[in-house]
Amino acid sequence: MPEAPPNALLGPSTLRRLAARRIVARRRFTNRHQGANLAGRGGSSTEFSDYRDYSPGDDPRFVDWNVFARLRRPYLKLYRVEEEMHVVVLIDASGSMASEAKLDRAREVAAAFGVLALGGGERLSAWAFGAAAHPPLALRPRRGRTGVPHLLRFLDGIEAGGDCPVESGIERILAGHRGRGIALVVSDFLTAGDLTRPLNALHAAGLEPLGVQLLGPTEFEPDVGRDVRLVDVETAARLDVSSVPELLGIYRATRDAHTAEVRAMFEGRGGRFLRAGSSESVDDIVLREMVRRGWIR
Amino acid sequence: MGFHLPAYAWLFALVAPLVLLYFLKLRRPSINVSSLVLWRRVLDDHRVNAPFQRFRRSLLLWLQLAGLCLLALAAMQPFFGGAGDSVARRPILIDCSASMAAREKDGGPTRLDLAKARAKALVDALGPGQEASVVAFASRARRVADFTSDRRRLFDAIDGITVEDEPSDVVDALRLAAALAQREPFRSVTLLSDGNVPPDADFALPFELDYELVGPGGANVGIVDLNAARGEGGGWEVFVRVVASADYRGAVLARLAVGDDVVADETIAMNPNETRDVVFRLQGSGDRLPLRVSLEPDAFDAMPSDDVAYLSLTPPRELRLWVAPALEWIAPYLAEQSRVVVIESPIPPVDADAIVSNRLSDERAGVRVALFVDAVPERAASLFIDGAIDLEIVDWERDDALLHHVDLRDVLVSGQRSVAPSRSVADFEVLGFQATIESSGGPLMLAERAPDRARWYLVFDPLRSTMPYRLAFPILLANLVRTAEREAGLLGAVGGRTGVLPPLRGVAGEPCTVTAPSGRTWRVVAGSDGLVTGIPATRVGRYDVAIGDERRSVGASLLDRRETSMVRVREIQFRESLRVVADGATRTERPLWPWLAALALVASLAEWWFYQRRPGGRQ
Q1: Is residue B108 within 8 Å of residue B216, measured between CB atoms?
Q2: What is the pLDDT of residue B613?
Q3: Looking at the 3D structure of chain A, how many domains does it have?
Q4: How does DSSP assign A14-35, residue by residue?
Q5: Does one domain contain both A288 and A270?
Q6: Which helix (H) or strand (E) holds B183?
Q7: Does residue A102 sit in the same domain as residue A199?
Q8: What CATH architecture does domain B319-487 belong to?
């Protein structure tokens, strides 16, 4: 694979390592378009799949003459079909992602995943949603490595801001999306809304939902050693918190419970979920965690 | 434990607004977060919203509360120790008697130094609103500082106290304190003394007494008595009594000096608590003989003031008596006495040693002894009524100087006056007379004593009684001569003591100059009777008194056995079986507010540091 042009999101070493990897879809949500992913049904690829009895009208080129010579009965040799998979990357660019480099990390994860998709010959489209009042930013579907510069430019152009919740953003994107495959949602998932409906919609649209939750360092270990006033960067809402002995423990438990709830929603719909810190590198998130969890091989 | 200003407890009420302001979230730092979703869920947890839960880790609030409470406590002026409640006024009685000059060792502090240091500590421990006064006492008490909270004034007053070479009279000091209590009440009095006080005090304590002993003192030896008696051949025998304290053991060289010349000395060995008498025999005569007896111990002597004593002797001469012409029948009785000369003069001379007269107008201020016959003092005249009456002597004062060995039984008197029926002996006592001979009709002889003179009044005519025919009469006249000789110093002399110098004869209304041993000089004026009285003599030594052109030297000596013996009385018995025992140091109130204020400052600094601490610094 030729070297990708240098960019601010992914370094050369990351790109080299990504070139040897492929996205692993748990479900075979593929499109009719021939692609690099094997479909479950018989096809015309070189990878043997099965035998079946010959029926009149079948293409005699697919009869296995060796079996006919031994058994004196014609059997048709079936091959797996290599179909195209549509990889959709959804980036939460709302105000909450602006803090603690969460959006930066989201762009890098999206870039890495997009490079994997384009390198694997899949169709890739990308969306970013931030302000509820504005339509999501979209990268129209691209194929092949030629789409990488488009993807990187698109990701570079994303700016954080707005108060669009992640569930609303997903639904708005699905309204304009066509294609089956994998939907990677990169967000902090800190929403009070219900993710059930957008995830159901993803599933119904033939997209395997993959969730990457990015949290900042203070969302892992908040500084609440004293009484503070918390201000929501999206809504400017305020909340006064008084330091009590169990506060940090309660916060951790609440955060983990929330993560577990979101994870359950993804996994309940055949999807997968990963929580990472914005302080982690993209190599750690994509090339280590996703590989370890089997999202990438 | 107590508080000087408990009214400041209202400051604790500031806790409520402090907590209120705290929870109104003043100066709560803002932190931007991505979302409040998780935090809203956290705050829904009952553990976070449990009552008082937020108090637990509100270190800022706790520090502020601690600082406020400490400041409120400091404002209440708490104190530790003492009697448990605040003492508003504290009189401090400081013993400055002779024994307070004693040192435990050479170069060491005197007991008075220690007492003054202790008094200053008491003053230093005064809390706000507390006052102290200082009373110094030896044989007399005097207030050296009124009740005040001004430490500087009290310190100055304490510093100004010096030792007075006099025995101590704690009762006088307590009486002064009681007088102070009448005007400015107080609960307790602190007595700082070396314990060299009488063990019994005839005084009913109206307040609590904190009796505090200072300074153990050291070994001492000194002169406790000095007197002289006329010896055979016109000389003098000088008697010196020397006493050693319980710690003293060693030899003492006693010296007798006439003027500046040492005329005799004797070395005596003293053992602890031993009393030794030394007798010097002095021959010859002259004018007034100023004697000085001094001791030179060969061991450490705690108190030097009792190592010297002074005595003035009168040269031997004849007693000068004057008898009124109307009483010339008495003169033979007097002329028979040895060393007596009866002056023949129509009026009494001013330098007579004694007079016998029937006229009150013959009274002379300079005459020490007088016997008035058939005369009634003017002040007592109203107590008598005239009228011839036969009187029988019923009793007489056998201890009276004129009635020694006088037997008046069966003496009959045909009096010309008697006491009015409504009057009694008490009426004479009120007027300053003592009835020395009492009869069925009232007093027949009255005695009147003054510091420098003695007067007797026979209110009847002896010739109208059987007295001249009795042995009693010449004995009475012989007693008169002996008394006159004693008053004139012809029989003997005793060492002059500190306190007040004996009255000196001067010129009425004329000033005279007194020079103390320290060199201090002051002027006093003779009274209308020509006497110079009340000259204070607080230090041992010779006092020079210039009266006109005449200069007299009067010696003042300590001569007090208790002071010299250095005994320490730990328990004083007061009236009504009340005992006061020396019980270590007076429990002074130690202020705690400086510590509380310091702690409040620490709490404030900690609160400031905690508040200014960088967010996120706590990992």
Answers
A1: no
A2: 65
A3: 2
A4: HHHHHHT--B--SS----SSEE
A5: yes
A6: helix B170-183
A7: yes
A8: 3-Layer(aba) Sandwich (3.40)
Q: What gap in Å lies between CA A232 and CA A8, rounded to an integer?
A: 29
DSSP A206-220: TEEEEEEEEE-HHHH
The answer to whether residues B278 and B309 touch, using CB atoms and an 8 Å cutoff, is: no
Q: Is the pLDDT of residue A103 over 90?
A: yes
Closest to B458 (Cα-Cα) out of B401, B374, B378: B374
Q: How confident is the model at residue B578 (pLDDT cuts 50, 70, 90)?
A: low
* pLDDT score, position B55: 56
Check B25 against A240: CB less than 8 A apart. yes
Contacts of B518 (CB under 8 A, 6+ apart): B539, B541
Q: Are residues A91 and A75 in the same domain?
A: no
Q: Check if the beta carbon of residue B575 is closer than 8 Å to that of residue B516.
A: no
Interface contact A230-B31, CB threshold 8 A: yes
Nearest Cβ partner for B39 among A191, A223, A230: A230
> What mean pLDDT comes out for the span A76-94?
79
| Among B190, B182, B223, CA closest to B206 | B182
First to last CA, chain A: 17
Superfamily of domain B221-316+558-564: Immunoglobulins (2.60.40.10)
- Per-residue tokens: A147: 């789409």
Q: How far is B55 from chain A (nearest CA, A)?
A: 7
Residues 6+ apart with CB under 8 A from A211: A184, A185, A187, A189, A262, A263, A266, A271, A272, A273, A274
- B45 interfaces chain A, CB cutoff of 8 Å: yes
Minimum Cα–Cα distance from A192: chain B residue:
B37
Cβ contact A240–B28 (<8 Å): yes
Written as six digits, the tokens of A286 are 């994509």
Give the list of residues 6+ apart from residue A233 with CB closer than 8 angstroms, or none.
A95, A96, A98, A99, B32, B33, B34
Per-residue pLDDT reduced to its tens digit, B159-214: 999 999 999 999 999 999 999 888 888 888 999 999 998 888 888 888 888 888 88
Residue B334: CA count within 13 A, CB half-sphere: 29
Q: How confident is the model at residue B618 (pLDDT cuts 50, 70, 90)?
A: very low
**B592 has pLDDT over 70:** yes
Record the tokens describing residue B574, joined without a space.
Answer: 């007061």
Give the per-residue pLDDT at B420. Answer: 86
Q: Domain B89-218+566-587 has what CATH class?
A: alpha beta
| B21 contact A CB<8A | no
Picking from B196, B226, B166, B227, the residue whose alpha carbon sits closest to that of residue B499 is: B166
Choose the closest CB to B34 out of A99, A223, A226.
A99
Residues near B568 by Cβ (< 8 Å), separated by ≥ 6?
A: B194, B195, B196, B213, B216, B217
Spatial separation of the C-alpha atoms in residues A63 and A56, rounded to whole Å = 12
Count CB neighbours of B534 within 10 A. Answer: 11
* Residue A160 dihedral angles phi and psi, to the nearest 5°: -80, 150
Residue B271's φ and ψ, nearest 5 degrees, are: -110, 165
Q: What is the DSSP string of B415-444?
A: EEEEE-TT--HHHHHHTT-EEEEEETTEEE
- Which tens digits make up the pLDDT trace of B452-470? 789 999 999 999 999 999 8
Q: Which long-range contacts (CB under 8 A, 24 or more apart) does B373-378 make?
A: B373/B327, B373/B330, B373/B458, B373/B461, B373/B462, B374/B416, B374/B458, B374/B459, B374/B460, B374/B461, B374/B462, B375/B457, B375/B458, B375/B459, B376/B417, B376/B457, B376/B459, B377/B433, B377/B446, B377/B448, B377/B455, B377/B457
- The C-alpha of A222 sits at a distance from chain B's nearest C-alpha, in angstroms, of 8
User: Does a structural domain hold residue A268?
Assistant: yes
Enclosing domain of residue A60: 34-83
Choice between B33 and A58, residue whose per-residue pLDDT is larger: B33
Sign of the dihedral through C-alpha A130, A135, A137, A142: positive
